[in-house]
Amino acid sequence: MANPAGTPIWYELLTPDPDAAQDFYTHVVGWTIAPSNHPGMDYRIISAPDGVPVAGLLKQPDGMTAGPVWLSYLAVADVDAAVDAIERAGGATHMPAMTIDGVGRMALVADPQGATLYVMRGESAEDSLAFRQAEEATPGHAVWNELSARDPEAALDFYASAFGWRQDGAMPMGELGDYRFVSCGTTRLGAIMGEVPNGRIGWQYYFMVPDIDAAEQRLASAGGKTIQGPDQIPGGSFALVCEDPHGARFGLVGSGGASRRKEDPI
After folding, report:
1. Residue 38 is inside which H or E element, if any?
2. How many CB atoms lie within 10 A of CB 223?
3. CATH 1.10.150.130 fits 8-122, yes or no
């Protein structure tokens, strides 16, 4: 893959019940989920409505105590060097670097405040389109990566050093501090912020849907929960923080329905 180092190239859901999760997310987000046919493991490929693969789905390992979780993969030029740099900066390695033939080399790491993610050098000659900036995105793709950290300034320093990120503006949130926009090269990735009410420390990923109100109705009918929103965001779209029936948090971004379109855009 030729995706710039430090940018997301894949997403992955670890869940206790892959069959139930498949039913839930196909209904709520509109994804297609199919077996990867990788020998020896039940790894499922999640594809957006345009047919582009965006994420993976698999059963969480036995004994995993952190609960179901969404993770991302960041592109790096050298996985082993990236792991070494992360550890020297105070991070940790949860899964040592390993190579999967036909897929690439990867490692599961944590930043110094405990937020987990993968680093990866993929073998595919094609660029990943799992993540698209909002102005380029179509439904089913990830459009925003949001980190909640106890110390946002320290988190920004870590990701700047490890992955070349930089702060690219900020939005004041009153007593909650700044919502710090972060970019890598010319790509705006998302934001880093402090702890928020009803939130969770760590990473949360937002996926695009055509209509936020219709998605929220599907969420409720499938047994999921609305945690926050829908809230209007800059540009006029709406963001919804969700929880699936097993407790994994994720976000959705989409246009408002008829009633919401009557509101004044930001």
Report:
1. none
2. 15
3. no
